TrEMBL record:
Belongs to the ABC transporter superfamily. The keyword Nucleotide-binding applies. It holds the Pfam family ABC_tran. SUPFAM superfamilies: P-loop containing nucleoside triphosphate hydrolases. It comes from the Bacteria. PANTHER family: HIGH-AFFINITY BRANCHED-CHAIN AMINO ACID TRANSPORT ATP-BINDING PROTEIN (PTHR43820:SF5), HIGH-AFFINITY BRANCHED-CHAIN AMINO ACID TRANSPORT ATP-BINDING PROTEIN LIVF (PTHR43820). GO terms for molecular function: ATP binding. This is Urea ABC transporter ATP-binding subunit UrtE. Keywords: Amino-acid transport, ATP-binding, Nucleotide-binding, Transport. CDD domains: ABC_TM1139_LivF_branched. Residues 2-231 form the ABC transporter domain.
């Protein structure tokens, strides 16, 4: 579904991602792991064309997208839940969700029913400012906004980082359901090994912008985790 070949990414003269090759298969959840600062978010930003100079090839559903603008990538079916959520201040919950609808090719402005079935509480808060929700609720809103784009690939950057524990489980359950019950292909950047093992089919661990280890999640051994993820 997504094929990344010889991708390099740069901020100015800082070379962050080095000659990376990855292939994400349709229907899987693929987890990108690694310590802080190894380039996980930068890799996602390269995939989305946000604020990072990228070379190499990024092929999504058979089309080269590495020169496409971010909103074109969204229209092609890539949904993104950024680290830190980026809920738009001053906008209501509903308007934040509708922002996602803008990226749809079918021009539909109705919110997909899936959003309400996954996060029913949002319906009771449609008129509230998005930024007045709790951190965990904002994360659910960010996922709802990404789902409103009607994506076939959903990319999530550390979706439960800094979220209160009682909502973490809800978010994790929703992510698993999106893949298993609704067939979404998912790329998950994660630091929580337990959730990576539960949710993902395959993984890659990054070290200094390169793939240090990769394989099916059954091969994500304690030894690998210790070698590449312990501080
Ligand atoms: N906008 C930027 N300009 C310059 N350097 C940046 C920028 N954003 C990130 N970096 C640097 O790029 C490197 C990779 O950062 P990145 O955020 O991709 O790592 P990460 O693996 O996602 O880490 P974390 O888990 O902390 O989010 C780091 O050295 C970081 O300081």
């Amino acid at each position: 579904m997504l094929k990344i070949s010889h991708v390099n990414a740069f901020y100015g003269t800082s070379h962050i991602i080095h000659d990376l090759d990855l292939e994400i298969r349709k229907g899987e959840t693929f987890c990108v792991l690694g310590r802080n600062g190894v380039g996980k978010t930068t890799l996602l930003r390269s995939l989305l064309g946000i604020g990072v100079r990228t070379t190499g090839s990024i092929e999504f559903q058979g089309h080269e997208i590495d020169r496409a603008l971010t909103h074109d990538r969204a229209r092609r079916g890539i949904g993104y839940v950024p680290q830190g959520r980026e809920i738009v201040p001053g906008m209501s919950v509903l308007d934040n969700i509708l922002l996602g609808c803008n990226a749809r090719t079918d021009r539909k402005t109705d919110v997909p029913p899936l959003v309400w079935s996954l996060f029913p509480f949002l319906k009771d808060h449609l008129g509230r400012r998005g930024t007045n929700l709790s951190g965990g609720q904002q994360q659910q809103l960010a996922i709802a906004r990404a789902l409103a784009t009607d994506p076939s690939l959903l990319i999530l950057d550390e979706p439960t980082e800094g979220i209160q524990p009682n909502i973490v489980e809800d978010i994790e359950r929703a992510i698993i359901a999106l893949n298993r019950d609704h067939g979404l292909t998912i790329i998950l950047v994660e630091q929580k090994i337990r959730f990576a093992r539960t949710a993902a089919h395959r993984f890659a661990i990054l070290e200094k912008g390169r793939v240090a280890a990769a394989g099916p999640t059954s091969e994500l051994t304690h030894e690998l985790v210790h070698r590449h993820m312990s501080l």
